[in-house]
Design goal:
Order of helices and strands: HHHHH
Oligomer: single chain
Largest sheet: none
Helix content: over 70%
């Protein structure tokens, strides 16, 4: 495995663990309500801007993954889509780059 692939894999793991630590901590302190978390994301203009920035990045990544998966017939890379919306762009993007850079038969 190349150094670059190992970097992508490490970033995907870090991009999973780090945000999930904060999400789980928040849920434990404030109840397990998704809607309460969505409300917390929009407490001020700075956080709302960040939410929209990441949402647009996630949609863009999803379109890219879908087009590439269909074009390259690389359907395993579609795992990046649920990772992006379930965890975040910090996991989905490096995961996609890791999957896309693997050797193909």
């Amino acid at each position: 495995m190349s150094i670059l692939r190992l970097i992508y894999l490490a970033l995907a793991i870090i991009g999973t663990v780090w945000p999930m630590y904060y999400f789980i901590s928040w849920f434990q302190e404030n109840s397990w309500s998704i809607m309460a978390m969505v409300d917390a994301w929009h407490v001020n203009n700075a956080t709302s801007g960040l939410v929209w920035d990441l949402t647009i990045a996630a949609v863009t990544l999803t379109i890219w993954v879908l087009v590439e998966a269909i074009t390259r017939r690389d359907y395993l890379s579609l795992l990046a889509v649920p990772a992006t919306f379930g965890i975040g762009v910090s996991c989905g993007l490096p995961l996609y780059l890791f999957l896309r850079s693997r050797p193909r038969d």
